Amino acid sequence: MKLAKILPLVALLALPTLGFAQEATEAVEAVVDDTPPMAEIGYILTTFMFLVTGVLVFWMAAGFTMLEAGLVRQKNTTMQLMKNMALYSLASVMYFLVGYNLMYPGDGWSIDGWLGAFSLTGLEPVGLADTETDLTYASVGADFFFQLMFCAATASIVSGTLAERIKLWPFLIFTVILTGLIYPIQASWKWGGGFLAPGAEGVTDFLDFAGSTVVHSTGGWAALAGAIILGPRLGKYGKDGRVTPFPGANLPLATLGTFILWMGWFGFNGGSQLYMDTAANVADISRIMANTNLAAAGGAIAAMILTQILYKKPDLTMVLNGALAGLVSITAEPLTPSLGAATLIGGVGGVIVVFAVPFLDKLKIDDVVGAIPVHLFCGIWGTLAVVLTNPDATLGAQIKGIVAVGVFVFVVSLVLWLILKAIFGIRVSEEDEVRGLDVAELGMEAYPEFSKG
Amino acid sequence: MKLIIAAIKPFKLEEVREALTTIGVRGMMVTEIKGFGSQSGHTEIYRGAEYAVNFVPKVKLEIVVTASMADEVVETIAKTAKTDKIGDGKIFVLDVESAVRVRTGETNDDAL
């Protein structure tokens, strides 16, 4: 790191101690000229906040990976790891190539309010040379970095639902379209200033703070379309309506994955405050993180108590889903609820998953990790729940947002899955499915030295 | 010589081993097995779906002893492994034709 870049930070730290450290006065005066102008401090802190919370959201990729690796059967573990590595990397590239400017076109809409700009992402020049930087927000680099993580999270949601039976490459082609086009287009409607964003007269429209609808339901709708076209795993649903469970191979990994997601969510919701330039914004970020935590706790506790009552034993996988359900539920509005309200909003999410998982089984929609109940159902619930604590929200506007995003994502995904099915086939052969995708598609087992479980 | 095969509840293994050692049994073979008898299987619930566990985990003991000791061994196992609940297991007794101790070449009763 260059000294010139460190000095302003040193000055920042030294400033409050100016009056007390007489001996150090000389040294402090030597660097005081490099102190950033007050006007830059907001820009610096907000940018820094985006980078830190962006790293937290990145880590959710690890959370999804471990959750999925734990909830599939052993014979499909390597494939799940492979898909998660690939989808995160592809999402990164696609968001750079197309996604970012499609989602945030500024004044460059291709179709005003509906379709953004098609261009590569460009960053500020090195050292902000020769530019007039807008100091009211954050650097483009930090914004791009942060928003990219949300795009990747959307794709992660899909991979869990379709596990154990989908072919690798058609899934990755879907991921490319989802992260390059589907996600950025619908996200531009709300977050890019499109037709779902606050109206011109300052009237607040559809509200989705960190993406219960824009991120989670979008992933959920794409997963639902895929699960319908792909069909259930072999032997999952018997002719007489019996459901055969395929217990996950590694519950410690699934639990670790859930805790990682929980941690990442502090960045997901906290960073979505988008500004850390005033005391008010910092206080709001604190509210958001505290509320986010309690919503997850509420969801986990609700799922634990409910499965104890319904099934006589608490079901860990439902408790894991319950915590995530709480997180998704609070994501549309983590700021305005009180701590108690956040706990209850998350708790309702936990109740929703416990009923939604068997409900999907009744419809013979096979969702390996429970991503549809967690991300789609609770995404819808969370988006509706905004009206409970935020007086600016209206039920009509919330429903408008849910329906607009839902119809677009579900229909486009359905068509895309059908096209992929027609061209390549999206499902492995029965024999390969029974042998497991690790051996059949990759020739590599996750735990080669252990006997088959 | 008699071969005694006993399938018992896994948590009783240590207690049974201790009781048999006390009456002079000097060796046994132990295998973790799954199976069903009159206890049959049971059902569990995973993510809201009920499923049958058709085979129950048990521990299988194989003990070869002199004919004169067989009854005492069977009684000891039966007494120690008993919980009065369904699924306590079963004991079978078979004749053994011959035995050899590999290290010394001793045969039959001497090999035990």
| Beta-strand fraction estimate of chain A | under 5%
Main sheet of chain B: which strands, in order across? Answer: 2-5-1-6
Largest interface by residue count? A-B, 16 and 7 residues
Give the CATH topology of the largest domain in chain A.
Answer: Ammonium transporter fold
Q: How many whole angstroms does the radius of gyration of chain B measure?
A: 17 Å
Shape of chain A: globular
* Nearest-integer average pLDDT of chain A: 91
Looking at the structure, the CATH topology of chain B is: Alpha-Beta Plaits
Q: What can be said about the biggest beta sheet of chain B?
A: 4 strands, antiparallel
- Into which percentage range does the β-strand content of chain B fall? 35-45%
Oligomer: heterodimer
Helicity of chain A, in percent? 55-70%
- What structural class do the secondary elements of chain A suggest? mainly alpha
**Cα distance spanning the termini of chain A:** 50 Å
Distance between the termini of chain B: 9 Å
Question: How would you describe this protein?
Answer:
The complex is a heterodimer of chains A (453) and B (112). By secondary structure, chain A is an all-alpha fold. Chain A folds into 2 domains: 3-32, no CATH class; 49-442, Ammonium transporter AmtB like domains (Ammonium transporter fold). Chain A is 66% helix and 0% strand. In chain A, helix 3 runs antiparallel to helix 4, helix 4 runs parallel beside helix 6 (168-190) and helix 9 runs antiparallel to helix 10 (316-331). The radius of gyration of chain A is 23 Å and the shape is globular. The model of chain A is unreliable at 9-22 (pLDDT under 50). Chain B has helices at 13-22, 67-81, and strands spanning 2-8, 29-35, 42-46, 49-53, 56-65, 89-95. Chain B is elongated, with a radius of gyration of 17 Å. In chain B, the strands form 2 sheets. Chain B has a 4-stranded antiparallel beta sheet, with helices on one face. A two-stranded antiparallel sheet of chain B has the order 3-4. Chain B is α+β, with helices and mostly antiparallel strands and 112 residues long. Chain B has a single domain (2-111), classed as Alpha-Beta Plaits (2-Layer Sandwich).
